Amino acid sequence: MTSTTRKPTRRTFVKGTAAATAAIATGFPLIAKAAPLHKLRIATLAPDGSTWHKAFKQVAREVKEKTDGAIEIKIYPGGTMGDEPAMIRKMRTGQLDGAAVTNVGLGEINQQVLMLQLPLLFRNYDELDRVRNAMSTKFEALLLAEGFRMDGNWGDVGFAHLFSNTPIKVPSDAKKTKMWVWNSDAISKEVMKVTGVNATELAVPDVLASLQTGLIDAFMNSPYGAIALQWYTKARYVTDLKLAMTIGGSVMSTSSWDKLSDEHKQILHEVSHAKHKSLLKRIRSDNQAAMKALVDKGIEVVAPEDFPAWKKVADTTRHNLTGSVFDKALVEEMMSLLGR
Questions:
Q1: Range of the domain at 319
Q2: Which of 36, 39, 210, 235 is spaced 20 to 30 A from 293 at the CA atom?
Q3: What is the pTM of this model?
Q4: Residue 164 lies in a domain
């Protein structure tokens, strides 16, 4: 059998020459791009396109660039990996490497961290920063003992307000609503119990649909969170009371972290930490702007009345959970930092 040697056609010659020229001009060799050494899967309830999600994507881009493509981060936004308890379970089983969660998610790892969400605990961000900065080492050690690293990557959702379709001026007004409570939030459920509200327990991904069907007609969220999740579209009123501070952070399983080289750990830590610091400032600004935007969208701001009644709910909730859910010494340390 004889073989025939084909001469290159003008088309193949031009294509090959163009590719070679492009490679020389850009400095890229004509070889297949290496696959990343690590593909990190990170989940969050933060909606696609929200300030939180954009920040996480920026971390992914910068880490990929600084590790020369060795680390690739895939973000799963909007609860596509389930509610926060599901995210924590998936991290434990290796289905996820990390997650950006609220205090409720952190509380699934160690319930002590959830105490930062006690009602009427913080009056402003200065008080939050004072307590969190002083106690973060202890809280992060509790998370690490359970196999989760935070490395100072704390985050804010913002002060939670009550949104409703009838004005809520005093705690008892909430009894007239079909209130939502996060089914994994021990504090909010205790608040509802103390207030005498028969709230509907739901996971966060189920809230919007339940507002649309009328299963619930009232909820708690930060102003920016209510807009980002589109919940505000089903509310007519917002109570001008900083009921509780919703915070959180980004955590990574120690099993996933330990697979990285020391160099890559340093890069991931530096990029994530810097972005979380800037994100704190941005979210606080976004929440301030969001409250004004809610008014512009037609939501009426309701002035709370009978503050002693609200404080009684807060004090009773803290008393009921201290010693049963929260470590008494930690609660006392936190209150001491606040001068109370």
A1: 34-337
A2: 210
A3: 0.87
A4: yes
Cα separation, 32 vs 184, in Å, equals 46
Q: Output the CA angle 282-286-288, nearest 5 degrees.
A: 120
Q: Residue type at 85?
A: P
d(Cα 145, Cα 299) in Å, to the nearest integer? 44
Is residue 71 within 8 Å of 64, Cβ to Cβ? yes
What's the residue count for the chain? 340
Q: Which residues pair with 248 in a beta bridge?
A: 102, 155
The alpha carbon torsion through 171, 289, 272, 90 (nearest 10 deg) reads 40
201 is a domain residue: yes
| pLDDT tens per residue, range 116-127 | 999 999 999 999
Residue with tokens 């070889």: 31
Tell me whether residue 249 is in a domain: yes
d(CA 134, CA 124): 16
Q: Cα-flanking dihedrals φ and ψ of residue 219, to 5°?
A: -160, 170
- Please give the structure tokens belonging to residue 97: 């490497």
Give the pLDDT band of residue 18 (cuts 50, 70, 90). very low
Contact of 314 with 115, CB cutoff 8 Å: no
Structure tokens at 252: 């990574």
Nearest to 269, CA basis, from 251, 246, 247: 251
Cβ contact 59:46 at 8 Å: no
Asked whether 101 and 82 are in contact (CB, 8 A), the reply is no
H helix and E strand count, the chain: 12, 11
Q: Per the structure, how many domains does the chain have? A: 1
Residue 175 falls within a domain, yes or no?
A: yes
Give the distance from CA 30 to its chain's centroid: 42
Q: Report the CATH number at residue 183.
A: 3.40.190.170
Please list, in sequence order, all residues whose beta carbon lies within 8 angstroms of the beta carbon of residue 263, skipping any fewer than 6 positions away.
none
And the tokens for 201? 């327990």
Q: Going by DSSP bridges, is the β-strand pair 180-182/200-202 parallel, antiparallel, or unpaired?
A: parallel
Helix (H) or strand (E) holding 157: strand 154-164
Tokens at residue 328, please? 């008494």
Determine the Cα angle at 140 with ends 321 and 49, to 5°.
95
Residue reference for tokens 């690293």: 149
| Residue 34: band (very low, low, confident or very high) from pLDDT cuts 50, 70, 90 | low
